[in-house]
Structures are given as C-alpha cells and as structure tokens.
Amino acid sequence: MVLFIAIAAGAYPVVRRLTRRLEALKQGVEQFGAGRLSHRVEVSGSDEVAAVASSFNVAAQRVEALVQSHRSLLANASHELRSPLARMKMAVSMFEGASAEQRAKLKVEIDRNVAELDALVEEVLLASRLDVAHDPLLRDRVDLFALAAEEAARVDATVDAEEETVIAGDERLLRRALRNLLENARRYGGGEITVVLRPPAPDGATTILVCDRGAGVPEAMRERILEPFFRLPGHAEQAGGVGLGLSLVKQIAERHGGSVRCEPREGGGTCFRLTLPAG
Asked: For residue 139, is pLDDT > 90?
C-alpha cells in the first residue's frame, strides 16, 4: 500500500504536465475555431501530444493559406467586375435614345462586356475548384502533340514537335492550360506564335514551350506575371483578358506535379515553359 502511494505520488507531476499540455492544445484549437486563423499551438516533446500539436499546426497553416487565397481572389474579382459592369450600365442607359447606328455599336459593346463577365466568372470558379481540390487527379492518356496541334490551329500558331508524346493527366485541364498560354500569346505577343514540344527527358518529364515575338516581360515581373490578376503596365486596357489565365496555368501545372515559368525568347519575345511529369 505504501509503495502504491509512493508510485502514485511520483506519477502525479507527469500527469499534471500532460493535463496542462492537453488543455493548452484544446484552447489553441478553440481559438483557431473562433477565427484566429494565425494562431498556432506550442509543440514540445516527442510524444503523441506533440505529434497531434504538430499536425494541428500544419493543418491550420493550410486552412489559413486557403482562406487568404479565397479572400484575395474575391477582392480582386470584385474589383475586376466593376469595369465591365460600369461600361454595360452606361451602354444600356444610352440605348433607348440612340439612333439605329448607335444602337448597333452599343449592342456590340454590351455583348463584349457580357463575354468578359462570363469569362471572369468561369475562371474564378475554376481557380476556386483547383484551390480546394482533394479528389485524385484524372489520369487519362493524353496525346500532347494532338492537343497542341488542335489548340494551335485556333490561333494560327505553328507546332514544332519531333515525336508523339503521351502523358497521363487530366485532358480537360491540360487543354485549358495550353489554350490560356496560346490566348495570352495571341493577345500580347505579336503575330508569330510557336508551340515547341520537347521529347521526354530522362526522368520522363515533358516540356511544352509557347513562344511569341511580343515586347517581352521584364525580368523583375517574370514570376509576378503568374500571380492572379497581375498584368503588365498597359495591358489592363487590352480587351479580352481578365488577369487569371496565366495563374490558372500555374495551378494546373502544379496540380499535375509540374511547373510553369516565363523566360525571354532569343531574338525577342517571351516563352512560357510548361513542364509536366510522366504521370
């Protein structure tokens, strides 16, 4: 009996420390749940409680990043919606008292702004889905040469490929990535657009280059140009773009385990290098 009491007395400080750590973890979870998304809990020791605390911090970091991403996306999208909505409001207000010729021009303006709004909403929804996607990526058999040829034909671009290249991936998303790169080249890159499909590297990765002969992208902006809603000075006024196309390419590449980067083209212009693993 005396021995049991002695053991119990010796274990009491250990139990007390464990209780305090569990209580601190509980309070941390409650603070995070109450909206303090930057809150993290202390990780000490190497036992099960420390493992739970570490896992909580990792999950909290992901949730905070996701919420911040969505807030930024919503704020930027709200800002971008104002311009086409304001133009539509003005065109509609002028429509009733306009002549037949003026009405025809106003209708073109209204249709253009409706198309811009539709594209913006579609790209915001896709960006949001890619942000929160947890389902396994589709792994279809995708012929990149055929895909490149089809999309290049839409913008009168040339395709340079040495051989047929097939990878495993989501054909719909890969088509969207290539289309966005080609549309960007058509809009800002001058008349000469080339798609270069490189043979797979020793590690199985495939590289697609979409190159133009435009003014090029300053070195300081080559990473920022892949951010949502970032546009080069003077490009915001050009019709057709909503500022999400290149950031979607980055999301799609990363969803496939790949990457995209902006590089200068020899002789002038820009190349976007899309690298995709074998799958």
From this structure: no
Task: Please state the domain count of the chain.
Answer: 3
Query: Is 69 among the domain residues?
Result: no
Q: What pLDDT score was predicted for residue 5?
A: 44
Cα dihedral 246→248→251→254 (10° resolution): -60
Q: How far apart are CA 249 and CA 152, in angstroms?
A: 16
Distance of CA 69 to the CA centre of its chain: 10
pLDDT reading at 62 higher than 90: no
The radius of gyration of the chain from alpha carbons, rounded to an integer in Å, stands at 27
Which of 154, 149, 226, 162 lies closest to 195, judged by CA? Answer: 149
Task: Give the structural domain span for 107.
Answer: 81-132
- At which of 101, 116, 132 does a domain end? 132
Domain boundary among the residues 39, 64, 89 is at: 64
pLDDT of residue 113: 82
Contact yes or no for 147/115 (Cβ under 8 A): no
The pLDDT score that the predictor gives to residue 1 is 47
270 plus 151 within the same structural domain: yes
User: pTM of the full predicted structure?
Assistant: 0.64
Chain segment 162-216, per-residue pLDDT in tens: 777 888 888 888 998 999 999 889 888 777 899 999 888 888 889 999 999 988 8
What contacts 24+ positions apart, CB below 8 Å, involve 105-114? 112/239, 113/84, 113/85, 113/87, 113/88, 114/84, 114/88
- Strands 259-264 and 270-276 turn out to be antiparallel
Q: Are 247 and 228 in contact (CB under 8 A)?
A: yes
Residue 243 backbone class (left: φ over 0; alpha: ψ -120 to 50; beta: rest): left
